[in-house]
What does this fold into?
Amino acid sequence: MDLKTLRMTERRWEIAVLNGPNTLRQLQPADELDRELQAWADNLDIGVRSFQSNHEGLLLEYVHATAGEVDGFLVNPGGLVRVGESLRHVLKDAKKPAIELHIRQAELRGSSIFAPSVTGIFAGPDRNAYLGALVALTLALDDLDFLNPEGSSEFNRSHGNPRSLYG
Amino acid sequence: MTHADSALGADSDDVRRLRFALLNGLNMTNLGRRDKNIYGTIASLQALEDLVTEVGEAVDVDVTAFHSNHEGELVDFLEANPDMDGYIINPGGLWAFGDPSRIALEETGRPFVEVHFANIFATGHLSTFTQSADATVMGLRHYGYIGALIALAASVRARAAL
It folds into this structure.
């Protein structure tokens, strides 16, 4: 189908996809995932870039470097799901909507430290989570009332705003 | 045909038509009158059901929408319609204690996606549906339903092609 028909603006959003430690094997063949992401983004008429690393520090530096250029993040934390405090923090600091993504929904169950501070969650089914999350985030970005913590209008998000786990 | 094409129900004859049920649980009938900060600008439950049905048509999925404020009716519906290709449920107020609905979904043996408008994990809670669902989508308001429908259709087709 032509996903563009679902959209409400013609803005060419730029979405960064981050894949954390231990995701490489899950995502095999990785170049096929990149091709799929590109095909889906073309279909939606948005830009997408992706980055995989097993090093949390490299993921942080990628967010530092791209936060000003992109409109949102899709993050598959992989092995960091329970322990990636620094990645969680940098995503909060980026002040861009971040969607936590998992290929297997079971990875989410009760153990994610990201879930309370991300804008939304898209866990499963299988690698189609990337497709669903890309579509949902694009449509959400098109809705200017939505996902904007500062609130350009009378509506503000009260759930899913970045907030401290400890506050 | 690559997965990227087939996932989107590319315009070919060999795309199998799927049947999904869309279930909305307790209080969702009140959608247009609920807190707009959480639920956004969607006008009503009818508007939501129409939207999901319309997107379903575009990806060759027949959507049967059902809602009730009575959990027993959701269970009745699931027992009467156990042969769908997939289920999308927003349990509404049942998210915490909707075990009968969750078990009825499990018993269909078909994949189901749990959708919530809000990121309920951000409120420090865990939905009872999360332990059984094939996919969980939350925090994306009604756009989560659209993403869930497209991802679930692509997933069911990819599994059928194996």
In short: The helical segments of chain B are 3-7, 36-39, 45-58, 71-80, 99-108, 143-161. The radius of gyration of chain B is 15 Å. The first strand of chain B starts at residue 18 and ends at 26.
